[in-house]
Amino acid sequence: MENDTKKEVWMDDVMDSLKGMKRASAGGDMYARVMQRTTVATATARFPIKTWAAAAILLLAVNISSAIYATAKKRSLAASVHTGSELAIEIQSASTYYNY
Q: Computed from CA positions of residues 16, 21, 23, 26, in that sequence, does the dihedral angle turn out positive or negative?
């Protein structure tokens, strides 16, 4: 029982120590400074995104064109090896990708 009263007295002392305290308040120009920093940060963050997007599109275009070129070269090689048989060209181009 004595512990309970000590706890209650301690809690009352803590709560009494908070009396008369006021909430913190920001300066008058704080909102303007925060808004200025966020607009500057947003404006500078947009440029790299456009740059990265353009680089990604360019890389994708180069990869697609190289894949088309390699496929066309492989089919022309297969056609030169097996001239005269459309079935042989189709089988070789569809099944042989790696020649170990």
A: negative
